[in-house]
Write a structure and sequence with these properties.
Elements lengths: L2 H26 L4 H27 L3
């Protein structure tokens, strides 16, 4: 996998993560407690998942 493909996949993951982060903030802005907790859970999931996926993309052998 060349650096170009790795860069493209990394950019795609970051853009997807940004979209999900925007949705999480939107959920946290709702008046329901479930929405607040759902937004917090989504943010914590993104904090764990995005760096792990980027690490997997860049740590594969050449």
């Amino acid at each position: 996998m060349s650096s170009l493909f790795r860069s493209v996949f990394t950019l795609a993951v970051l853009l997807l993560g940004f979209g999900l982060l925007t949705e999480a903030f939107h959920l946290m802005n709702q008046p329901s407690d479930k929405s607040l907790l759902g937004g917090i859970a989504m943010i914590l999931g993104l904090v764990l998942a995005v760096p792990m996926i980027v690490h997997i993309i860049w740590s594969k052998l050449k």
